[in-house]
Amino acid sequence: MRVLVVTAVAAERDAVCAAGGPYTPRALPGGLALHTGDAAGGPAVDVLAAGVGPAAAAAGTATALTAAALDGAPYSLVISAGIGGGFAPAAPLGSVIVADTLTAADLGAETPEGFLPVTELGFGTVTHRPDPALVRAVATACGARTGPVLTVSTVTGSAARAAELTARHPGALAEAMEGFGVAEAAVAHGAGVLEIRTVSNAVGPRDRAAWRIGPALTALTGAFAALPAALRAL
């Protein structure tokens, strides 16, 4: 099995790489650097920091997937990974989340009656659902909660917006900015998809003093240290 892990920024990539390795940087088109892992004793895991937001995530993921396909060694699984905001109280700071759905929370239209996703406008999709057996296995191995993770283009900064999102997406555990974009590229290439997030802050009013980025990155390393055993079991 070959696995591509896509993060937004280098700090998240480095946290994932700290769980295994060694890793060797390889240049991809567009100035991206793919960190290729040693497959000895487990699945081959490569890690890419593709940029912030769903568009950058989709473009970077598609670039890596295309390069792998041209090399004759396609990826079978793509994982969107990183830190994110957790919806309190279900996803406290430092917790690990494996998404059972990856949903584009703000892809649609505002109307006098409220927000309409593109699916209700008659086109597109807003949700990807990973294989349930994969979700269960990885969540068990990582000690993670499972539930919806929302992809947003604008990070939530108010209690009102947080309430709106939870009303439209009951059970949502976290928000981040890349999962849906990664999933769009993975599905287009026939690869499986997964999203793993660790919680660095609460979704709602922005309080930088309350963020716990360091512990969330440490938790991300721990989650990926447990991942190979889950994938081997499957």
Give the SSE layout.
Layout: E1 2-7, H1 10-17, E2 23-27, E3 33-37, E4 44-49, H2 54-70, E5 77-86, E6 96-104, E7 108-111, E8 114-117, E9 127-128, H3 132-142, E10 145-151, H4 159-168, E11 174-176, H5 179-188, E12 192-202, H6 213-233
Parallel strand pairs: 1-4, 1-5, 5-12, 6-10, 10-11
Antiparallel strand pairs: 2-3, 3-4, 5-11, 6-9, 6-12, 7-8
Helix pairs in contact: 1-6, 2-5, 3-6
Catalytic activity: futalosine + H2O = dehypoxanthine futalosine + hypoxanthine
Keywords: Glycosidase, Hydrolase, Menaquinone biosynthesis
Pfam families: PNP_UDP_1
Short structural summary:
With 234 residues, the protein is an alpha/beta fold. The protein has helices at 10-17, 54-70, 132-142, 159-168, 179-188, 213-233, and strands spanning 2-7, 23-27, 33-37, 44-49, 77-86, 96-104, 108-111, 114-117, 127-128, 145-151, 174-176, 192-202. The strands form 2 sheets. It has a 5-stranded mixed beta barrel with strand order 5-11-10-6-12, surrounded by 4 helices. A two-stranded antiparallel sheet has the order 7-8.
Structure description:
The chain is α/β, with parallel strands linked by helices. The protein is built from 6 helices and 12 strands. 33% of the residues lie in helices and 31% in strands. It has a 5-stranded mixed barrel, surrounded by 4 helices. A two-stranded antiparallel sheet has the order 7-8. Helix 1 (10-17) packs across helix 6.
